[in-house]
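Much of our argument rests on the idea that a fold can be written as discrete symbols. Part of our work consisted of pairing the sequence of a single chain with a tokenised description of its backbone. We regard such an encoding as a compact summary of how the chain folds. The amino acid sequence and the backbone structure tokens for this protein are reproduced below.
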Amino acid sequence: MTYIVYPYKMGSGSSKVLATALNARRVYPDRKYVKREDHFVINWGSTTCPIWDDGAKVLNDWDRVTVSHNKYDALVAMGGAGVRVPEYTTEYTQAKRWNEEGCALIARTLLRASGGRGTYHISGDEDVLTHIEGSRVRLWSKYIPKLHEYRIHVGYMPDYTVRTLIQHKRKVRDAENCNYKIRNTEGGWIFAINDIVPPNENVVQEAIHAVYALGLDFGAVDVIWNEGRQRPYVLEVNTAPGLAGTTTTKFYTDYIEEYRNAL
């Protein structure tokens, strides 16, 4: 069986790492890929579905990735399935009401973005704007204070048993002016595997629930832990996560090979 990595773009560094580790072919996400019955396709974050007949096994269906990739659609799907997510709205009047009640908000001008692009924190004493830096705000959600933030890598097996890998977001040691509200790379934060604060078991279970709710075979779930409420909240699910380290890469290669062998 031949592994095929189908990336969301050919410049994806993580897709290159995965393809090398699996000794797989990478194909252009341009609908021209022709599958074979002996192909085992790993859809790495692509919403571009090739035109083909049935036959090859595909991890992460394109339609499911399309929903997961859209911040609003993903929140609707997860919330509808009972996954705990922050309260959200696309209506300015509702966001303004929350703001007037003193709620801090997260505003998004981009619904399909990664790395925190197009994401802004609005405190309770600021005006809610319909446009930020020239772009229309498309989604507001209530900001949830967090003690910890985790990325839980989840892989479902054919028999619905689950494989997980836990990463904990922490400050870069030498980073200055860390952004504690939006914890991304630009704000001085990285995901780590070693010497981490172990998550509450509910964090892991909520991540597993999120991947199942979106109908994915695998995903990297960003989950925060609110200490005061003793509750986890799922922020998003990544279908083409970064593979910055041998442990993370090995998790996916082991999961994919085990999945294939179980078929």
